[in-house]
Design goal:
It contains 18 helices and three strands. The longest helix has 38 residues. It is globular, with a radius of gyration of 24 Å. The chain has a three-stranded antiparallel beta sheet with strand order 1-3-2. The relative contact order is 0.10. It is 66% helix and 4% strand. With 408 residues, the protein is mainly alpha-helical.
Length: 408
């Protein structure tokens, strides 16, 4: 009887959850190393790949699976996850068959993990290839590799079904008929490339005034592009959904920043607090711009937090200060962004006529799609927050230079 499948399942079950036992994981790893009756590396590879395939059919996508591993696991396990996801993409011919967004995710994983060598992707046995590339020939190194495999399997096998956005791999055609477009033309205009470039400059500079100028110009272009796109479409709204992965620490506070950015840009966010996954729903241009602005403001919020003076406190109290700072920063920034948006819409209405009927139709369409995808959502309250951190966060948000201030 082949013992490998049972060992893999027992080790995966012991790696996560309330009954997690590192002693059991270590014991299973030792048994897999000593196993000579079967090829555990080949079977472990097959199990990893079949787990990925099953999760894709449950609504998960490549970057989702990497995100949940990065949040909880070591760099070694994360590297194994990236290699497995890239290997599966090679075997399923995702580049030639998958939707545009899926291919972009695979490319993003490859960019995040340049250490994943091509021989791993080409090998019929993923785990055997990783051992050869890593030079893991001694007993301890091979045992550690199996611990990483069991940890990864346990993390992925414990995931629930996720709301489906887009076509499942089982629904892909044998070959994609449309050619891949450059990233800046996915939504239909090189304007997004200009906005992305301005935000990248804002993120990279150490000078606040320069960052403010870049961000202000980017916001100005975003508002104009969004309104112009709606007017050109004569109010017709296509709705798309995209997942945004929110990193630790303080994921809930960062999600609040995403919420306020999304609200101003006429998109909706549904937040999965268990996995730190946000689904942004809205018009394609608005979803794209929401994600870009959130990414940029996250960098700027982290920079503002690092500069914020704070009272000397214990480690737990300091964490409370950081959380309150980020929540207050998000709330106050949302208020100011809303003011900027109102001014921009007023100017656009003078140029293009009354926009309210078009915006109302767009809102109804977006809300209907949110209800279809997430019929059981509920609003949540924010946490109790540290007063000093809240006041510091609002002060930092007040210092941000928004386009509306320059227009006044």
């Amino acid at each position: 009887m082949n013992p490998v499948p049972e060992l893999l399942q027992r080790g995966a079950d012991a790696a996560v959850g309330r009954t997690a036992s590192q002693r059991v994981v270590d014991d299973v790893a030792d048994q897999l190393v000593a196993c000579t009756d079967a090829d555990p590396l080949a079977q472990g590879s097959v199990t990893l790949l079949s787990t990925i395939t099953a999760l894709y059919e449950e609504g998960w996508q490549p970057l989702d699976l990497l995100h949940v591993v990065r949040r909880h696991c070591t760099a070694e396990v994360t590297g194994l996850a990236a290699a497995a996801l890239l290997h599966e993409a090679e075997l399923s011919d995702a580049t030639a068959r998958a939707p545009e967004s899926w291919v972009r995710q695979v490319e993003a994983i490859r960019a995040l993990r340049p250490d994943v060598e091509s021989p791993v992707d080409a090998s019929p046995s993923l785990l055997a290839a990783r051992l050869r590339l890593g030079g893991a020939s001694d007993y301890i190194a091979v045992s550690d590799q199996w611990i990483a495999v069991l940890t990864l399997l346990g993390r992925w096998q414990s995931l629930p079904r996720l709301t489906r956005i887009g076509a499942l791999p089982s629904q892909w055609p044998s070959a994609r008929t449309a050619r891949l477009l450059p990233p800046d033309t996915v939504v239909g205009s090189g304007m997004l490339g200009r906005i992305r470039g301005l935000l990248a400059k804002a993120d990279s500079t150490e000078f606040e005034e320069e960052a403010d100028a870049f961000t202000a110009k980017a916001q100005e272009l975003m508002t104009k592009y969004s309104v112009d796109t709606l007017v050109l479409a004569e109010g017709r709204t296509d709705v798309v959904s995209r997942r945004v992965h929110v990193d630790n620490p303080h994921a809930d506070a960062r999600a609040q920043l995403l919420h306020v950015v999304a609200t101003v840009n006429r998109t909706r966010v549904v937040w999965d607090t268990d996995h730190a996954l946000a689904t942004v729903v809205g018009a394609p241009v608005d979803v794209e711009q929401t994600e870009m602005l959130f990414t940029s403001l996250s960098v700027q919020a982290a920079r503002a937090l690092a500069r914020a003076p704070r009272p000397a406190r214990r480690k737990k109290a300091a964490s409370g200060f950081d959380t309150a700072f980020l929540w207050a920063y998000a709330v106050r920034l949302g208020e100011r962004l809303a003011e900027s948006d109102a001014l921009a819409l007023e100017e656009a209405s003078r140029r293009s006529g009354d926009l309210l009927p078009m915006l109302a139709t767009q809102t109804v369409t977006v809300e209907a799609e949110v209800e279809r995808l997430f019929p059981a959502t509920r609003s949540v309250r924010g946490p109790r927050l540290d007063l000093a951190g809240w006041e510091s966060g609002r002060a930092a948000a007040n210092e941000a230079d928004l386009p509306a201030d320059r227009q006044r």
